[in-house]
Design goal:
Layout (H helix, E strand, L loop, with lengths): L12 E2 L4 E2 L23 H20 L9 H6 L6 E2 L26 H4 L3 H17 L10 H27 L23 H18 L15 H14 L3 H13 L13 H4 L5 E5 L13 H4 L17 E2 L1 H7 L9 H4 E2 L7 E2 L5 E2 L11 E2 L3 E5 H14 L3 H15 L8 H16 L5 H7 L3 H4 L6 H5 L9 H4 L16
Antiparallel strand pairs: 1-2, 3-5, 4-10, 6-7, 8-9
Helix pairs in contact: 1-4, 1-5, 4-5, 5-6, 6-7, 7-8, 8-13, 13-14, 13-15, 14-15
């Protein structure tokens, strides 16, 4: 599986200056001594192993938990700023400043700096994707067991992962350092300045459009959701265009996904299957399931949302509890929305939690409660999200009827009355429905940015000046990154905050 391909990390790609701390210039992959030499890049089988490494690096970047902290960037940056969770101020004192109660002060994130202020690990994934794309294209077609189609698939997946990593970086930190080729001599790399967000997003679009051309659909195969396919490329294009506020193209690619017929909304009675993995609704997800031979599951990545009795002997104050003020607003009558009992649990305890990820597996019954994993995949793109993105795109283009139709498909699954709103009221309803549907999935903070609702939803944290200076992006750890790249600059708002 993903991480089992690695014997160890022999590189520390410090991109601020993009230097390597080792004279070895590769990631070792079994059973080869080198990834980036002519010996390795001689077969489709080896190219696929390198691609597997790229998936592993991206997964590691997203799920990385800073030492002595409780803060993988996926949920810290994607959910906590959106006021979804209540965290005990004693146990989680180091996270209070980044919550709305702390006015989303991202500059103060003790213990979390390696996770939320250092983008290095994402560039390790990007460089691996560079290598996959560059070298796979050079391998003769007769070296691939699946011929040209399999070669196209590997290159297409490499392009998808590269674009997804850059888009992920952009939504968190703003202007990335844009590299377009692999490191040839990492010990003599010149400093690189940050590139404008628009340029990077256009690069992502170029990669994703090419990926969509190269890839077919994986539906019905063993890798159908955990390997990128044509639908994943279209869904990512919809999001990139929406981030650019190019809603015409965003809507077009939403339609491509929806009209492909490859995906369908999960029935609400089996709603939890979405996060159990390989659901009919999922478009792209990272494999994190438990297997006795190749265990990709983690404990506290998803386990941070849970407490006893779902995780034995875990106290409620050590969990990310749902913000009941917010959920009370979103679900004023929990009996009406059929998703509620699938989303929120342990309400009777007084410490309600998110239960989307409540599939706990005690793999060693003799070592409870310590030997456990939370057995879910990390769903990054799914159909309900695309329907709601289509509704947003239609609304922004003044197409209230089209927006209602897309929104109501998601509402109907939940057992809610169809929307008849128009204009601003309809747009606000779309955002609220995104909150209900995507709660705790690492995306709502970005929705607030993209939909330009920060002033309205987080008035104590955001001012027009902060927004003008893009203070919704996170600061970089300049003490660590600047020595490696003297051209690197701090995000404007955080220069004086």
């Amino acid at each position: 599986m993903i991480f089992k391909q690695f014997t160890k990390w022999v590189t520390a790609i410090l991109i601020g200056g993009i230097l390597l701390s080792s004279c070895k210039k590769y990631i070792e992959l079994k059973p080869h001594d080198a990834t980036y030499d002519e010996v390795f890049w001689n077969s489709g089988d080896n190219a696929e192993k390198a691609l597997t490494g790229a998936y592993g690096l991206l997964r590691g970047a997203i799920t990385y938990n800073a030492p002595d902290a409780d803060g993988p960037i996926h949920f810290v940056a994607g959910d906590l700023p959106a006021d979804e969770f209540w965290l005990d101020g004693g146990y989680y004192w180091f996270l209070q400043s980044i919550l709305p109660v702390g006015r989303n002060t991202y500059s103060y994130a003790p213990y979390l700096e390696p996770s939320v202020k250092d983008w290095t690990r994402f560039y390790a994934a990007i460089n691996q994707c560079h290598l996959v794309v560059e070298n796979t294209e050079k391998i003769p077609v007769d070296k691939f067991d699946g011929g040209q189609a399999f070669k196209n698939q590997l290159v297409g997946e490499g392009r998808f992962l590269r674009a997804y990593a850059y888009f992920y970086i952009t939504r968190i930190w703003g202007d990335p350092v844009l590299t377009k080729e692999s490191l040839k001599d990492p010990l003599s790399v010149q400093p690189i300045a940050r590139s404008p967000e628009e340029e990077v997003l256009n690069y992502c679009i170029e990669d994703l459009e090419k990926a969509a051309e190269l890839l077919d659909f994986n539906t019905g195969t063993a890798i159908s959701k955990i390997r990128a396919d044509k639908g994943a490329a279209w869904a990512a294009l919809a999001h990139v265009y929406a981030w650019k506020h190019d809603y015409a193209n965003a809507g077009k690619y939403c339609d491509s996904v929806i009209n492909s017929g490859q995906y369908s909304l999960q029935d609400v009675d089996s709603y939890e299957q979405i996060w159990a993995g390989q659901s009919q609704e999922s478009i792209f997800e990272l494999n994190m399931l438990y297997n006795v031979d190749n265990n990709e599951a983690l404990d506290y990545f998803f386990g941070r949302f849970l407490h006893d009795p779902l995780i034995k002997n875990k106290d409620a104050y050590t969990s990310w509890l749902v913000n009941t003020d917010l959920t009370g607003y979103l679900f004023p009558d929990p009996s009406i929305d059929k998703r509620y009992d699938k989303i929120i649990g342990l309400v009777q305890t007084g410490d309600p939690i998110l239960i989307k990820y409540a599939n706990v597996n005690y793999y060693d019954p003799n070592n409870q409660p310590d030997a456990f994993v939370v057995n879910n995949n990390l769903v990054l793109l799914r159909l309900a999200d695309i329907y709601l993105l289509k509704a947003e795109a239609a609304s922004k283009q003044g197409d209230d009827i089209g927006a209602q139709e897309a929104l109501n498909i998601v509402k109907e699954r939940a057992g809610l009355e169809p929307s008849s709103n128009t204009g601003d009221a309809l747009f606000n309803e779309i955002l609220e429905e995104r909150y209900r549907e995507l709660y705790g999935e690492g995306s709502l903070a970005y929705d607030l940015i993209r939909m330009e609702k920060l002033l309205e939803w987080l008035p104590d944290s955001y001012t027009p000046d902060r927004i003008a200076k893009k203070g919704y992006y996170w600061p970089l750890d300049m003490r660590k990154l600047l020595p490696q790249d003297p051209l690197l600059t701090q995000n404007e708002w955080w220069k004086n905050h």
